[in-house]
Amino acid sequence: MARPRTPIGTHGRITCRRLSSGRYEAHTRYRDWDGKCREVQYTADSVAAAERQLKRKLSERPLFQPTFTGMSADSSFADLVDYWLEDIEIEDRLSRTTRLLYERNMRTLVLPAFQNLTLREIGVARCDYFIKQLAKQSYNRARQARNVMRLALALAVRHELIPRNPMDNVSRLRRPPREVNSFTPEEVRLIRAAVRQWEEREITAGPRPDGQLGQIVEIMLGTSARIGEVLAIRLCDLDLKSTTPTVRICGTIVTRTGEPTHRQDHPKTARSVRRIALPAFAVKAIRARIRKVTLRGQDTLLFSTRSGTPHTTNNIRRRLRDITSKAGLDEVTPHRFRRAVATAINDAAGIDLAAALLGHTDSRITQMHYVPREEIVDPATANHLEAAFGAAG
């Protein structure tokens, strides 16, 4: 019968001996993290001190495989953040934009509260309190902080710096009720009129508008594409000669700190790559724009600045907001056009087609965030109830 193994972290009998220097050495055999027994010793001026210090040394000896990072449960949370960001770069799974967003959220939302704490000091109660306090200020900030904290502490668990992730047991965040804010057909008409009036106004100084803003609005309405996706459309993405004109949405415009604004060769997600049939009003806007494009290379952007560089999404947002606010229209954003398109398609053909047009992997996302909830229940229920219970009265 095999002899049971001594558990990891168990030491044998401690013995002491006097050294030629007059000091005392306490030593024992210790079954280490890898299952091997090793000699561990400590030297002090007395037998009692040597034994006491050896026991302390054994209690602090790691029971898990030592990592090459030199980190432990006594490392600071700030050190873990640096290591986590480095690990993200090594994995290279996330887009550059997402990495920068994670770093910003960590450094601005989380680090001020945790940077002076060790990993051992960060427990469920502390994390739970922090997230709840942040949620009082903003649900979105609390959600973003919770996400990056969970990811960083999960790395600490995987590398056996801490036994469990305290973020796994914090209270669930409750999303505040939010009404989907879309445009009505009348609001779309007023926005079009405001943009057209701005483009056709008399110019006393500076260059005259070249019609791009109005054309961008038409394409957002005709495709449901995000503003960055519209600005990233190239001439080679257009097919206007087929019986059904189409545009391929396969990129987006990104602006990052320290980098020039540029076209990214993929949109938000892989599912977001799609070819969309164009309505007549969008084709008209595209043809009008193409007539003014001087460079005709395959990779030429449909929309660009006068110097040929990509527009930034923030500039388009700001210009649209300024024009419409002067016309008495509040909260006009490019994303609301996307909701307006989703609502129109849902009303006409159902939520599944709306989700496909928007590039969503799940129609529930479209239903929750893009289509206003209809209060009126199908009147057919009245007939069904009358048939079930009316005769009994």
Brief overview, please?
Pfam families: Phage_int_SAM_3 (PF14659), Phage_integrase (PF00589). The protein is mostly helical.
Model description:
The protein is mostly helical. It has 3 domains: about 15-60, no CATH class; about 75-170, DNA polymerase, domain 1 (Orthogonal Bundle); about 185-200 and about 210-370, Orthogonal Bundle (hpI Integrase, Chain A). It is built from 14 helices and 8 strands. It has helices at about 45-60, 75-90, 95-115, 125-135, 140-160, 185-200, 210-225, 225-230, 280-290, 315-325, 335-350, 350-360, 365-370, 380-390; strands spanning about 15-20, 25-30, 35-45, 240, 245-250, 250-255, 260-265, 275. It has a 3-stranded antiparallel beta sheet with strand order 1-2-3. A 3-stranded antiparallel beta sheet has the order 4-5-8, with no helix packed on it. Strand 1 (about 15-20) and strand 2 (about 25-30) form a beta hairpin. The mean pLDDT is about 85.
